[in-house]
Amino acid sequence: MKEKIIRESIELFDEKGFIETSIQDIVGNIGVTKGTFYYYYESKQDLLRDIHLSYIQELLEEQKVILNNQDKKYTEKLYSIIYLLISKIKSHGPNARIFFREMRHLNQENMNQIKEKRKEFRINFQTMIEEGIQVGEFNNNIRPDILTFGILSLTNRSYYWYDPHGEVSEEGLADMYLELIKNGIKKYS
Asked: What pTM did the predictor assign?
């Protein structure tokens, strides 16, 4: 039942927003009472925190698998993380939008908890960029922290406009992003 509450909440939060969605909306859509909701959650705020935590925790676990793969070059790891973020649009689109859009509604304690997890993802990514620079695979005249923020901003904003069922595949978009990151938009003659 807890998973049902989470799934329905994600759909409603994506459609109506966190503030506009009531606990009654959630329980009414799944056909249970408010008592059922309160059995699993003390508040809508706790539910939002759990949605955020489960999303970022899943990303962190998949990121660690990519980063710990000793058989991949850093460019391949970069592509894999970009692809990871893009591929979540199809499987977790509403959840991802909530993760970025509704974070502002978390209370300070919950916000701090989520920010720590997001920071962990970013630091892991930045460390990979720094290691790629050290071994000569990436350009060393771009600050790794700025590059990290730029890449994550580029990929994370895709949740707002990218249609995984459209003409560009997930792999195609990840390829385009990697090409842009590696080579920019300068035309070479």
From this structure: 0.87
